[in-house]
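REQUEST FORM: STRUCTURE PREDICTION
Request ID: SP-0412
Submitted by: Lab K.M.
Chain count: 1
Length (residues): 59
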Amino acid sequence: MWLRSSTGSILEGSVRKACNKVRVTIQLVDAEQDKHEWTESYDSSLADIFAIQSALYGC
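STATUS: Completed
RESULT:
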């Protein structure tokens, strides 16, 4: 999944699942320079999936 902004940056993300664990990774990429500006990963069990959602949205 990705989203291009009007500033020339791309926000891309992925979700991977293995057994009862999930990893969400988000990256901000400068599209003009093809350079990663920021990356963050969140790991959790599926039982705590809403904790990751809260962390992503800053709740």
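NOTES: The longest strand covers residues 35-45.
Reviewed by: T.R.
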